[in-house]
Amino acid sequence: MLGLATRARKAVSGEFSTEKAIQKFTACLVIVAEDASENTKKKFRDKCEFYEVEFHIYGTREQLGNAMGKEARASLAITDQGFADTLHKLIEGGSDSGKN
Fold it and tell me: Which of 46, 59, 95, 99 is deepest in the core (most CB within 10 A)?
């Protein structure tokens, strides 16, 4: 699903692009890798809480990057509500602690 969102240009990745999408209110869902630094997790958790964006910690940097067809990515934002809803269901179904 991340690959489809990326090809449809409905996903951005990397710390700068993810932060920019949150601040411009274009992010519908933010995913941060489990192996991202604690500072990165806290930064995006706090930003998402402030801007009221759905936030998940899921997968590794390698898994997120591979799913997007790119190199390792610690953070990404989905900018389409349909993709965000589908990914939320997949994350919640695949992990009991997906939403943080």
Answer: 59
Q: Please identify which residue in the block is written with the tokens 């990397």.
A: 14
In a domain, 35, yes or no: yes
Has residue 61 been placed in a domain?
Answer: yes
Residue 100 has pLDDT above 90, yes or no: no
Domain that holds residue 12: 2-94
Please give the structure tokens belonging to residue 70: 């790119």
Please state the domain count of the chain: 1
Beta-bridged to residue 78, according to DSSP, are: 11, 29
What proportion of the chain, given as a percentage, has pLDDT over 90? 90
For residue 19, CA distances in Å to 45, 51, 90, 92 come to 11, 11, 23, 23
Residue 32 sits in a domain whose CATH number is 3.30.1330.30
User: Mean pLDDT over residues 34-48, rounded?
Assistant: 97
